[in-house]
Amino acid sequence: MSSLPLAQNLIEIERGLTTSSTAIFVPFTTQELFQTGKEALYYGLNALSNNLIMVDRKLLKNPNGLILGTPGSGKSFSAKREIANAFLVTDDDIIISDPEAEYSPLVERLGGQVIRVSPTSTQYINPMDINMNYSEEDNPIALKADFILSLCELVVGGKEGLQPIEKTVIDRCVHQVYQSYFNDPRPDNMPVLEDLYDELMKQDEKEAHHVATALEIYVKGSLNLFNHRTNVDIDNRLVCYDIKELGKQLKKIGMLIVQDQVWGRVTANREEGKSTRYYMDEMHLLLKEEQTAAYSVEIWKRFRKWGGIPTGITQNVKDLLASREVENIFENSDFIYMLNQAVGDRAILAKQLNISQHQLSYVTHSGEGEGLLFYGNVILPFVDRFPTDLELYRIMTTKPGEVAEAREAG
Predict the structure, then answer these.
(1) Which of 58, 78, 155, 169 holds its CA 20 to 30 A away from the CA of 272?
(2) Is there a contact between 117 and 254 (Cβ–Cβ < 8 Å)?
(3) Contacts (Cβ under 8 Å, ≥6 apart) of 256
(4) Distance (Å, rounded) from C-alpha 410 to C-alpha 405?
(5) Helix, strand or coil for residue 39?
(6) Helix, strand, or coil (residue 295)
C-alpha cells in the first residue's frame, strides 16, 4: 500500500540517501543521451546515472566520427561493437580499412566479404574501377583522372611529384582508356592499369614514357597486384579490406586504392538512397602520406552529402593536428568517442573541445571501455562493460591471449 501513489506511508522506516544518490534527483546535474529512433545505437551506460546511451549519428549536423584512445583502451573493440550494432539495426553498408587484420573474424561471422590485399593473394581489386555515378557532375572521368594522378604521383615519387607535362599526358591517356568502356559499359570492358601503361607508351612525349617506366613494376613486374580486374564481391553489405600483408612499397598505394573503392561504393549507394559507414583503423597511417591524407580530408568534407558516415580510429590526437589541412578532420567531427588518453593528448583535447578538468578525469588512467562521449555539443562520461562469456566477445576481442584461445576453440 505504501508504494501506491496514495501519499500514505504505512511503514515506519526512514532511510537516508548517500550524496551521490541524492545528486541524481537534483535537476541539471546529469545529462542524458537517449534517442528513441529506430536507428539509434547503444554506446554504453551513462557513468553518472547508469542509464543507457542510445544515439543515432545520422541526426548530427555531420555524422563524421573519431574513436581516440591509447593502445589497449578498447578502440578497435568499440569500433566492432558499433559495426555489429549498425549491421543488425540499420540497412547501411559497412566498409572497413583494416591494416592490422583484426576485423576478419567478425566480418566472416556476419557473412561479410574479407578482401585480403597482398602480393601473394589471388583476391584482386582494380584501381581503374569506375561507375556512372562516380562524380556529381556529368563527367565521372574527370574525378577518376584526379585519383589516377594521385596514384601516379605516389608511384613516380620525388619531392616535386608530377611535372605539369606529366599530368597533362596522364589526363589525356585516362580519357582515352575509358572511352571504350563508356561506349559499352560491360565488366569485361573495364580497363586495368596495363591499358593506361600501353596508352602512355603510345604517346610522343618523353614524359609519358617516364611515367610509364615508373608504372612498369606495378604492371609487368613483381608488384603487379593491382593490374587485375576486381574478382571479389565488393557489393557485399559488409566489406573488410585487409591490407596487413602489403609491404612497405605497396601499403601507401593500397590505402589510396581502398579509399577510391569506398568512394565508388558511396556514390553507387547514394543513387539507391543508402548510407555507407566507413571505418578507418590506424588512421594515422593514412595521414602520413600527402595523397592519402588529402583524400581523407576530402572524405570528411564531402561524405555527408553522399550519405557516407566515416569513422577514424587512431591513438594520438597529435596526428590529427599535423597540418592545417588535416585539422579539418578534427574540426568536422561531431561524434568523438574518447577512451583513455595520453598526457599530451589530454591537454590538446581539453583545449580543442572545451573539456573541464572534472570531465578530463574520465579519460585519465581510465579502464578499458571507459571514457567520454562527445556528441554534437553534449559531453558525457560513459562506461561500457561487455560480458566476456559471449561468442560475440570472442570474435571481437583483440587481446592476444584471448585471440589464441578463440582460434583453438574454433
Answers:
(1) 78
(2) yes
(3) 147, 150, 151, 154, 289, 291, 292, 295
(4) 9
(5) coil
(6) helix
Instruction: Name the residue with cell 573541464.
Output: 356
Cα three-residue angle 17-23-28, rounded to 5 degrees? 155
pLDDT at 400: 67
All three cell numbers of 17: 540517501
- Among 217, 241, 138, 148, smallest CA distance to 182 is for 138
Going by C-alpha positions, the residue among 202, 195, 237, 241 that lies closest to residue 218 is 195
CATH architecture of 63-117+234-409: 3-Layer(aba) Sandwich (3.40)
Of 401, 382, 408, 306, residue with least CA distance to 81: 382
Q: Are strands 41-46 and 238-242 parallel, antiparallel or unpaired?
A: unpaired
Cell of 221: 613486374
Burial per residue of 21-42, b for 16 or more beta-carbon CB atoms within 10 angstroms, e otherwise = eeeeeeeeebeebeeeeebbbe
Instruction: Please identify which residue in the block is written with the cell numbers 554504453.
Output: 44
Model pTM score: 0.86
- Which grid coordinates are listed for 72? 589497449
Tell me, rounded to whole angstroms, the distance of Cα 398 from its chain centroid: 18
The DSSP result for 105-172, as a single string, is: HHHHHTT-EEEE-STT-S----TT---TTSSSSS-HHHHHHHHHHHHHHHHH-SSS-S-HHHHHHHHH
Q: Which helix (H) or strand (E) holds 113?
A: strand 113-116
DSSP letter for each residue of 299-324? HHHHGGGGTEEEEEEES-GGGGGSSH
Quick one: DSSP state of residue 34? B
Question: How far is it, in rounded angstroms, from Cα 128 to Cα 238?
Answer: 22
| E strand residue ranges, 254-351 | 276-280, 308-314, 335-338
pLDDT tens readout for residues 32-63 = 899 998 999 999 999 988 899 999 999 999 99
Give start-end residues of each CATH 3.40.50.300 domain in the chain. Answer: 63-117+234-409
The cell for 406 is: 578463440
Q: Which residue has the cell 563508356?
A: 182
**What are the residue ranges in the chain where pLDDT is below 70?**
20, 23-30, 134-138, 158-159, 400-410
Q: Which pLDDT belongs to residue 23?
A: 66
